[in-house]
């Protein structure tokens, strides 16, 4: 883990579209058009969730949604730093970003890395324009984080493949046009995995909700679907190796640390305006503020490694572990200083900062699970430090 990033590097203009790129993005996200879209999202009833947001289309029109992608695929040929700037500002502005992470950071990155020229031209532009969402079909019942143990199969059928199996804990499947599906094509343990791009509207795909504590549901996806040979993304039987590389790209934790900072700022603002201030709590807020700043540097260190074409799985895992574990501490402090008022939901009373506390509390545990559990992240770091598993 040799990458290093200084505080001054995070917002430096070098490599950005222009010196004020972050300010331009921030101003756009504060614009009336974007805020109108956010107001619509705020009005969603329990059981509804954000899907194909107009905000993504607006970002796509500016080529900001996938700003680091080549121009021919809807980007601006910019750096990972620019992409991180957009991702961080989305999180800071409170804009739902799960669909962005799935479509751009995971599926798009995989196609960009492992796809053919024809596949890139076929799938990437619609994602970059915000016209289509993509989902991820990895996790299976009883499998958890061990993707090498997948049981969903893909068998040869004529010139194509027949995929049969079940995926759980997928997200945004009901909104997605396509899904990146990992399936077993050979019996070799630890390999024999192939990635396929699946049409989510195809006959033979059934999607059912898995309700959870958050406002964004999981999906239970059953597959019995035929795909063409040109829907294979990357090498046959060797998709697991490519997946591991893409996971390191996904785990920069930029989106997580942005969310943690937004939560902390909301809680601190309410606490500062309250009559319940104490020296002890003041000290704890200062401590958390410092640690959140440290988490941001860890995240941008992972981004710097991507720009340097020296992706380090341990650097990414460390950033992901640190920032998601920190989220729980921020939320715990929020509930401590707000008490019962912090449990009021946005459907129970007047809009205000209090309604976000209980939503944070429901969301924060899942951050330590998505994109790899905290335990897996520590194992990755330990392995790269030579400490064994």
From TrEMBL:
Residues 238-384 form the Acyl-CoA dehydrogenase/oxidase C-terminal domain. One of its GO terms (cellular component) is plasma membrane. The keyword Transmembrane does not apply. Belongs to the acyl-CoA dehydrogenase family. This is Acyl-CoA dehydrogenase. It comes from the Bacteria. One of its GO terms (molecular function) is oxidoreductase activity, acting on the CH-CH group of donors. Residues 21-131 form the Acyl-CoA dehydrogenase/oxidase N-terminal domain. It comes from Rugosimonospora africana. Its cofactor is FAD. Keywords: FAD, Flavoprotein, Oxidoreductase. Pfam families: Acyl-CoA_dh_1, Acyl-CoA_dh_M, Acyl-CoA_dh_N. Residues 137-213 form the Acyl-CoA oxidase/dehydrogenase middle domain.
